[in-house]
Every structure is written in structure tokens, then in C-alpha cells.
Amino acid sequence: MPSAAPPPLTDSDTFPIDASAVDVAWHNDDQNVWFVTAQGLMGYFEPRSPWGNTVFSQGSGVTGTANSLVSWTGHGAWTFITGEQGSAFVKCMNDGQYQVYPLNGATDCRSLALGMNKQGRPQLVAPLISWNQLAFIEAGGAVSYSMMYPDGLYAVSIASQQRGRYWLTSPKGKALVAYDASTGTFGSPVLLGVEPRDVAAAPAGDVVWVATKDKVIFKYTVDGGTLTRVETPFAANRMLATADGTLWFVSTAGDAVGYVLPDKGRAATIPTGQGSRPSGLTMSADSRLWIALSGRKALQRVSRYRLAAVSGDDQTTTVGQRFPKPFEVKATLLDGTPVGGQKIEFSVEEGAGVFENGEHTEIKHTGSQSEQLGFATSSLLTPLKEGPCPVTARWTESDAVASFTHLTVNPKPGQADRVRYVSGAGQTVPPGKSFDNPMKVIVEDAKGNTVEGAQITFRILEENMASFPGGTDIVRVPSGPDGSADSPVLTAGDKQGDFSVQVSVDDTWVSLLLRQNIT
């Protein structure tokens, strides 16, 4: 009978199971999360009330160690057991019956993947590390082998949309290698320069991720043949690439789930708890991520929801002046599917700012149609104090959160204290012609902050030497958001000679004299 587990408290929670799992796999046949122990015992967890789990403890009779697990629709769950006397593929069906398919000798195997053979039929693929070749097993148990690969093989991953192309890592060759099932040949190696470990192909087969012994993962773009280096907080042991472009990874040394979001060059983490030792990961049909915690005899479920900041970060303004752009987020499932009609709460610390509703929080909803599907946009925020002004967006129907942390609020400028020259003085034109450039100045307060809205006066001191539009010798211009102001077009009179333009600001004692020349 299945053992009961407590119901979850949130959308991300930990569920005890009766075994210490080293890998997990989602099984379409029974819609359960299957797991395997280091001794090769298999079982499954039911991710729904009453949240039970079953371990088929009678085992296969094969003594040794297992590392990985693959589910095969219609053909049970499979692992590979390495023993001192020999190695074998082991299958476990939903009723708990084990079936063993031995090899002729002992070899270690890090990972398994489900692919297609050259006839288009499914087969399991296993890199045999000490034998330097691949083993293939069909649903009926027939085993065959590839040619030898002299530089050795370690791990395998096969894209779900390109089942006939196998991606492999070669530690001795320090390379990523493709195998073509239709021809039975290995491709040219993609040199990495370091020793690779696990590998993960995106579902479409356009991107392949390679882990190393160090805290580095490589992203290989297949069409362009480019490699991108990504630093990670811990060395990755298992990886999973999802359809939206995200890479997930775990390590028994990390006590965290790591991930690299699409188009990001750095990794982030979700802690799983001290001593949890995450060892495997899989995604269920409802887009939830499940993690095997080998240190706790438990599975952890990561929220199926994601809220990503799209735009609005990296802005600067002054106290009392609105940020120029709103904050936009996108609500999706883990597999990248956008979700419309969801309530998103935008908020800042009380007293730090207000949205257009006059409050420090506001509710918006994600769009439900076409290009706006899944997107929610805040109103403009007016900060009330200087310093950092982090904004948080929370998907209220889930535990997903997005943050805008690169927002700066400068102190409100004081009164205009001085005017500073920028450009436009020292020009020369013939009589009757307009000067090429305006005169530009900036108004500042006593601390050097720019001042918006100050009234700047441009006054021609010598009579009949030049004029502004309308024939006047004096104009007033307000300073803009950056404190600057440009004079109107200045036109020379009929006489030759030098003349001065005085630039001053209301309520200040400082002015400038800008000289111009007519020849």
C-alpha cells in the first residue's frame, strides 16, 4: 500500500518519501513522479491528494549502483545498474515487477536517454563509460552497441523533437559530441577546453548545455556553433532544459536548485535547505518542477508559476518626480506558457512612493489576448524619498514574485543657485545671417544638482547688434528636466563687431556673458 505524505502548504513544498532518491522522471502512463535509489530500487510518488508514495523494495536481484532513471511510455521506468560482476538495464512496471536485461560484463553508466534508432523506433541510449561506446536497448530487451569512441563518453541527452540525434560528452576529448542514429556515426567534436560532465538538450534541439567539474556551464547554440560560458554557484550534477529556454540544474553539494533564465548570462538559485542534497529533477505534465532530495528522503516541488520582470528596471529620477517608465512583468508557467487574467500586485515600501492611485500598492491584471497575453503593466510611480526604491510585483494567485531593484531616486534639487555654460558662445556670422547654434546653459542648485523649471533670461546687451525671433532683444526660457535650456535662434544685425548676450536666472546673483561676433 502507498505511504501517505502530508498535503502541501504552498505551491512550493517538500514531500517525504520512503527512499533516498538519486534521480526522478515523470511517467505519462500513470501521471506519477517515479524515482530510483542508488541501489536500483524504484518507486513512484503520486502528486495529488492523498500524496502517497510506493517503493518496490523487492528489487531486481541485481546488486550494484544506479545513477539515472528514464520513463518510457507503455514500457515502464528504466535504470542502469552497475555491479562488480556485471551490469544490466533494469525495467520496473507499474505493478512493481522488475525485469533485468544484463550486459556481457561490468561497466559504469552515468545517464540514460530515450531516442530513436535508424528505423524510427524508440530505444534507450546509455553511454558505457569504461567501454567507450553506446549501448542501445529496445522495448523487448534486445541490446546493441555503437562503434568505439576513443576519447571516451560520459553523459547523454536527446532533444524530444530530434530523437535521432544524441548529444554526448567526452571527458578525455574535452568536447561535446553528436551521434547520428540514422548513420551510426559520431560527428566532429565541439571543443570545450575543459572536462565536461552532464549534458542537457533543449526540447527543440537548438541549444545544448554542458556541465563541467568546475562552477561553469557552457551553452552551445547548434545553428550558430557558438559557445557561451555561464558561471554557477556550484558545479552542476543534473540538468534539465525546458521549452522556454531556461536551464535548471542541481548538485548534491549545492543544497539548491540552480537556473539560468533565457538570454541571461548568470545563474540564480532556489535554496532547498541545509543537507537536502538535491540529486535529480524532472518536470510534470502540469509544468511543475520536481526535485529529488537525497539527503532528506523527500521530493520538493518548485512552483509551476513564474513572474519575470520585462521592463522598467534601471531608471533614475528625483524625489517627487515620476519614474519615466512603468513596470512591466510577464506571468508564465515553467514551460513558458503565458497566463492571462491573473491578478498582479505592484508595491513599494510604504512611505517610499505612490502609484497613480495615490497608494503604495496597486492591482493590475495580465492581458488575455494576442500580444498582451500574460503581460501586466503598472502605472507610473512617484518616489517620496531619496535612495534605492525597489518595486515588487507579486502574482497573487501563486507565490511567484518579480523584483525591480535597480531604481535610483536622487534628492530633490534646491533653489536655483547658478547657471553653467555648455555651448553656443564664440560664433561668427556675416551681417544679417542667423547664428548656427543656440546658446545652451544648465541651471544648478547650491549642491550642483540640476534644477528643472527655472526661468532663464537671455538678454542682448548692445543695441541693434542682433535680435531673437520677433525682433526682440530679450527672451525667457524655462529649464528642462535635466536643468538645461537652449536660446531661440539669434540673428545678426547689419553692423559688424562683437556683442554680448547676458544669461541669468531669476532670484540668483550669478549670470554669464556670452560673446558673439559679426564680420
From TrEMBL:
Query: Know the name of this protein?
Result: Uncharacterized protein
Organism of origin is Streptomyces abikoensis
Which Gene3D superfamilies does the annotation name? YVTN repeat-like/Quinoprotein amine dehydrogenase
At the top level, the lineage of the source is: Bacteria
Cross-referenced InterPro entries, in alphabetical order? WD40/YVTN_repeat-like_dom_sf
